[in-house]
Amino acid sequence: MKKILSVSLILACCFSAVAGNKNILPYKDASLPVEERVEDLLSRMTLDEKIAQLNQYSLGSNDNVNNNGEMVKVLPPEIGSLLYTADDAVSRNAMQKRAMEETRLGIPILFGYDTVHGYRTIYPIPLAQGASWNPDLAGEACRVAAQESYDVGIDWTFSPMVDVARDPRWGRVAEGYGEDPYLTSVFGASAVKAYQGDDMSEPGNIAACLKHYVGYGASEAGRDYVYTEISRQSLWSTYLPPFEAGVKAGAATLMSSFNDISGTPGSANHYTMTEILKEMWGHDGFVVGDWHAVKQLVTQGMAPDDATAVEYAINAGLDMDMTDNLYMPHLASLVESGRVSVDRIDDAVRRILRIKFRLGLFEHPYVEEKPENERILLPESLDVARRLAEETFVLLKNEEDVLPLKPGQKVALIGPMAKSQKDLLGSWHGRGLAEDVVSIFDGLSEVLTEAPAYAAGCGFEGDDRSGFDEAVKTASEADVVVLCLGERYSWSGENASRSTIALPEIQEDLLKAVKAAGKPVVVLLSNGRALDLTRISPLADAVLEIWQPGIMGGPAVASVLTGKTNPSGRLTVTFPYTTGQIPIYYCQRHPARDGSQGRYQDIPSTPMYEFGYGLSYTSYDYGTLTVSADSFTVNDTVTARVAVTNAGDMDGKETVQWYVCDPYSTITRPVKELKHFEKKLIPAGESCTFEFEIDPMRDLSYVNWKGERILEPGDYYIIVKDQKVCITLE
Ligand code: BGC
Predict the structure, then answer these.
(1) From the centroid of its chain, how far is CA 481?
(2) Ligand 1: which atom is nearest the Cα of residue 258?
(3) In this structure, what are the phi and psi dihedrals at residue 557, rounded to the nearest 5 degrees?
(4) What is the pLDDT of residue 23?
(5) Catalytic center residues
(6) Helix (H, G, I), strand (E, B), or coil: what is residue 185?
(7) What is the 98 CA–ligand 1 centroid distance (Å)?
(8) Residues near 208 by Cβ (< 8 Å), separated by ≥ 6?
(9) Which of 177, 192, 215, 303 has the most crowded CB, counting CB atoms within 10 A?
(10) Residues of the chain whose pLDDT is less than 50?
(11) What pLDDT does 10 receive?
C-alpha cells in the first residue's frame, strides 16, 4: 500500500471497501477511471473550493534563501498544495489529516519540494550528471531521490530543470544538464521516468516538474530573473525540445519561468503554456508558477496590480499559484466580473485533481512514519551516489600521465576545497548536510597507504596569503601535489550570477606558488559552472573537473585519482578561454565569412575545452565510420556504425557522440548537432561496435519557428569524432 494510514484510518478504508462501491461517492471509488472521478469531484465543488485547489502555500520561507514568503500562520486545509520542508512525515500526515477529515470533500493536499539532486543522499549536481553521459545512471540516482522524498511525505519534486543554458555567468547553469538541447532532453526524460515510474501511485514514486518553462536559461548577460530575447526560431529549436521530450516522457507538471520571453513573461505566456504545451502537445497535467511569479508580473511591468497579474497568469494557462497567495483572494471577483471564466478555472482544477488521482493520494493520503535508518542514506543509495560521481568527472589535462597517482607516491593535498564538506554539496542540496559529505581529504586518506599531507593555503577568496608558505613547504616535501580549488556551493544556483567565470585571484596565486615548488601539480576543480582556466590549465600538469559531486565526492575522487576508476566524463558545456567569449557553444551557426575574419583580434575565438571533450587513462581507436546506405528516402532507416578499440591497458567507458550536419537548408542550421550518444564499457584491448539508427524525420529534420518539422532532400553528414560520412535524402 502506498501511504500507510493510522490504524483507525485503515479500518475506515476497509469499511468503505466492504460497504461496496455503490456506497461511496464516485470520486472516491478507485475502481472508476480517473477522468470519471475528476468530473464527479469537480461537479460537487463550489467556486471557492475550486479556487482553493489552485493555490500552493508555503509555511513562510522554504529552504531556498532567495524565497522569503509571507508567514502563513493558519493553513487552510482545502488548499491544492503545500511547499513542504520537514525531515519526517509527521507534520505532513497531520496536515493531510485536516484536509481529509476537516473539509467537506476530503481532497488531499499535494506536498511539493525541491528535491533537485537528492533529498538527503545528495548526488552530483545536474550539470555534472550531464557530464556522465549516462542518463540511466542519473536515473538510478533520481530513483533514490524519489524514495527518500516519498518516505518523508513529498509527492512532487520541482525537478528536473531542463533549461538549456549557454552563459556560465548565470548561476543556474549548475541546475541543468548543459548547453545542448538533445542531451538535456535525454537526461530530462530519464529523470521524469525515474521519479514517476510507470505508475505514479506505486510506492516510492513521485510526480516530476519540468522547469522553468521556458527560456529561463537565455538570461541576458547571465543575470538572474531578467528579460530574455528569444526568437520563435530559437524557442522552438533550442529551448522547447527538452520540455517536449519531458512531456512525452509523461511529466505530470511544469513550472512556468520567471523570465520575460521577448516581451511576454513566461508566467503570463499564453503561447507557451496554452497553445504549445496544452494544445499542441496535449499535456493534461498542470502548470505551477515559479515562486511569486504571479506577483512578479507587476514588478516586470506587465500587470498594474495584483488582480490583473492573476488574470493574466490564469488566462495564459498558469494553473497553480506558487506561494504568491494571490489566486485565493482575487480569483472569485475576477470570475464574477467576467475577466476569468469558470471554464478556465474548471480546466485548471481538473488538471490538478487528475495528478492527485494519478498519484493515488485519495486512496493513500498518509505516509508511513519510518525511522531515519530505514529511509535515508541507505548503503545502496550511497553506492549510486558514488558511482554517479565517478562517472561525472572530466579529465581535462594529463601531461606525462601524472594521473593516476602511482602507488607509494607521497601526496600533498592543498587548497580550500580539500577539506570542505558543504561546498561539495552544490546548490539546491535539499536536506543534505555538510556532515554527510566525505571530503576529498577523507576520501583520499581512506585509500592511500600514507594519509596525504595537508595545507589549506588560502580561503576561497580574499587576500589572506599567509598560508602560502606552509602550502609551498608541504608541496616541496611531497612527490605530487593535488591542489583542490573551486567555487563555494553558494556561488552557483539561483540568484548567483557572476561577472567573471575565473576563480578568485588568490586561488590562481596559490597555484603559482605551489607550482614553484617544482612538483607535478594535479588541479582538482569543484564548481557549478564552466570556468575560465586560462591561467590555471597551463600551470597544471593535470586538471580533473569534479563539479559538485555530492556526499560521496571524496571516495569518488579517491577512486579516480588512484586509477581504480578510469575517468569517463565529457563536458556538456563549453569552457571558454575568457568570460569575454560568452556565449560560446558548440552548435553555433556558420558565420558569413570563413577564415580569420570576424574573429576576436586579441584572444582565440575557439574554446579552451569544447563540448564533448574529456580524456581517459586509456586511449580509444576509432575504426572507419560506415553507413548502411548512401542514399535513402524519408521512410528508410539508415544505420551508421563505428568500432571502437580500447588500445590502452586499462578498462574504460567510452561515449560515442553522434552528430548530424545539414550543410544547406532553407532555415540555417548549426554547424553540427548532437543526435545520439551511447556509453559502453570497453575492456582493455577489446573492441565494441557502436550504432546510430537514423530515423530521417526524427534525426535529420529541423523545426521551424511554428514548431513544424521540415525535412529537405539533399546531403546530410553523420559525424563521429573527426570522421564524417555523407548520406543523401532523395
Ligand atoms: C526557483 C524554483 C524553485 C522554487 C521553489 C524558485 O525560486 O526558481 O526553481 O523550484 O523557487 O523553491
Answers:
(1) 33
(2) 8
(3) -60, -45
(4) 86
(5) 290
(6) helix
(7) 26
(8) 156, 157, 159, 160, 191, 192, 195, 196, 246, 251, 252, 253
(9) 177
(10) 1-20
(11) 35
